[in-house]
Amino acid sequence: MKLQQQLVCGFGILITLLLALSISSFFRFSMTLDGLVEYRGLAVANVASGRIQANILEARLAANKYIKKQSEELKLSINSRANTAWS
């Protein structure tokens, strides 16, 4: 085999390997993107449930205070927190 043929074969193999690597990387990145989209959805749901839980806990705290000392301010706080938690 001549040197020119060896160089052409070498570059041909190199280009083929780079093409295979590029295709493989493209599919891996698309799978990673799907995973990130799923993770973001789970994170958004987690934040929403945390806010609901915080509002329920604040409503419970206001209810305990209302039992000890009835005031209109605490009553409004309970109602607003409860309405926020369920909407």
Total individual domains: 1
Largest sheet: none
Q: Give the N-terminus to C-terminus distance in angstroms.
A: 77 Å
Mean pLDDT: 90
Overview of this structure, please?
The protein has two helices and no strands. α1 packs antiparallel against α2 (72-86). By secondary structure, it is an all-alpha fold. The longest helix is centred in the middle third of the chain and has 66 residues, at 3-68. It has one domain (3-86).
Condensed summary:
The protein is mainly alpha-helical and 87 residues long. The chain has helices at 3-68, 72-86.
Keywords:
single chain; 87 residues; mainly alpha; 2 helices; rod-shaped
Q: How would the blueprint of this fold be written?
A:
Blueprint: H1 3-68, H2 72-86
